[in-house]
C-alpha cells in the first residue's frame, strides 16, 4: 500500500512540475504567420515599369520657344550627354521625364522658366535592363526590353535556333534579389518553336539572359 501511494505521489509531482514549467515532450513553436512574406524579386521593375535611358540611346530634346537649344543628342558610352548650353549631363539610368526635369534645371541659368520635353529616338536602354541571348541562336544579341515581352518575341528577334541547339535544355538566368543574385529557369525552346507548344512560352523580364546550349549529339 505504501509502495502504491509512493508511485502516485511521484506521478503527481512530475505532473505538477510539467504544469508549472511548461515542459512537454512536444516542442512548442511560435504560431505560423497569417500571410507569407512577399518574395524579394524584381517584380517592382515590372509593375509600373518605365524605360530608362542608356549609353547608345539618342534623345530628341525640345525646349519650348527655344529652338536654338533644342535638337537630337546621343548618350555617350560614359552615360552622359552634351547639348546646347549643357555639357556632361548624366543621362543613363534616368527616365525621359527625369532627364527633362534635369535639363530644365540646368537651362534655368540661361532661360527663364524653361519647359523641356525628351523623346527617345533610338536605343536599347541601360545594360541592366537589356535582354541577352547567348549560345545557339541564329542571331545572338542584346536587345531592349519591351513591356509584355515573352520568350517567343525574343526568339523571333534572335532568328530562332541553329541546327546544333539543344533547345529544351535552354534556360533563363534571372535576377531575383536586389543584390543581383540570379536563379536559372529552364525553358523548352524546341517545344515552343518546332512543336508549337504555347505552354512553353514564358514571360520575359528586364535583365534576363537566355542561354541556349549546344546539343552533344
Task: Give the arrangement of secondary structure elements.
Elements: H1 2-21, H2 43-46, E1 58-63, E2 71-74, E3 80-83, E4 86-90, H3 96-107, E5 116-122, E6 131-135, E7 141-143, H4 151-157, E8 171-175, E9 182-186, H5 189-194, E10 209-212
Parallel strand pairs: 6-10
Antiparallel strand pairs: 1-2, 1-5, 3-4, 6-7, 8-9, 8-10
Radius of gyration: 30 Å
In total, the number of strands is 10
The H/E string reads HHEEEEHEEEHEEHE
Level-1 CATH class name of the domain at 128-212:
Alpha Beta
Going by CATH, the homologous superfamily of the domain at 128-212 would be Outer membrane lipoprotein wza domain like
Count of individual helical segments:
5
Beta-strand share of residues: 15-25%
Helix content: 10-25%
Strand order of the largest sheet: 7-6-10-8-9
By CATH, the architecture of the domain at 128-212 is named Roll
Shape: elongated
CATH T-level topology of the domain at 128-212: Outer membrane lipoprotein wza fold like
pLDDT < 50 runs, ≥5 residues: 13-46
| Biggest sheet statistics | 5 strands, mixed
Structural class: alpha+beta
Q: Which whole number gives the mean pLDDT?
A: 83
Our measurement of the CA-to-CA distance between the termini, rounded to an integer number of angstroms, reads: 85 Å
Can you describe this structure?
The protein has helices at 2-21, 43-46, 96-107, 151-157, 189-194, and strands at 58-63, 71-74, 80-83, 86-90, 116-122, 131-135, 141-143, 171-175, 182-186, 209-212. Among the domains are: 58-122, wza like fold, CATH 3.30.1950.10; 128-212, Outer membrane lipoprotein wza fold like, CATH 3.10.560.10. The strands form 3 sheets. The chain has a 5-stranded mixed beta sheet, with no helix packed on it. Strands 2-1-5 form a 3-stranded antiparallel beta sheet, covered by helices on one side. It is of the alpha+beta class and 217 residues long. It is elongated and about 70 Å long.
Amino acid at each position: 500500500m505504501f509502495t502504491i501511494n509512493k508511485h502516485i505521489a511521484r506521478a503527481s509531482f512530475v505532473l505538477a512540475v510539467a504544469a508549472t514549467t511548461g515542459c512537454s515532450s512536444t516542442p512548442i513553436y511560435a504560431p505560423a504567420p497569417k500571410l507569407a512574406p512577399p518574395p524579394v524579386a524584381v517584380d517592382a521593375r515590372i509593375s509600373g515599369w518605365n524605360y530608362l535611358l542608356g549609353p547608345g540611346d539618342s534623345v530628341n530634346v525640345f525646349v519650348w520657344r527655344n529652338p536654338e537649344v533644342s535638337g537630337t543628342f546621343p548618350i555617350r558610352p560614359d552615360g552622359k550627354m552634351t547639348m546646347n548650353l549643357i555639357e556632361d549631363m548624366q543621362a543613363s539610368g534616368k527616365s525621359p521625364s527625369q532627364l527633362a526635369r534635369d535639363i530644365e534645371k540646368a537651362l534655368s541659368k540661361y532661360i527663364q522658366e524653361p519647359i523641356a520635353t525628351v523623346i527617345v529616338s533610338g536605343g536599347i536602354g541601360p545594360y541592366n535592363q537589356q535582354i541577352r541571348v547567348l549560345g545557339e541562336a541564329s542571331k545572338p544579341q542584346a536587345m531592349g526590353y519591351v513591356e509584355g515581352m515573352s520568350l517567343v518575341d525574343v526568339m523571333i528577334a534572335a532568328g530562332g535556333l541553329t541546327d546544333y541547339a539543344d533547345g529544351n535544355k535552354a534556360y533563363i538566368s534571372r535576377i531575383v534579389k536586389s543584390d543581383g543574385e540570379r536563379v536559372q529557369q529552364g525553358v523548352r525552346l524546341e517545344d515552343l518553336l518546332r512543336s508549337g507548344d504555347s505552354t512553353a512560352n514564358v514571360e520575359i523580364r528586364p535583365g534576363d539572359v537566355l542561354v541556349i546550349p549546344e546539343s552533344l549529339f
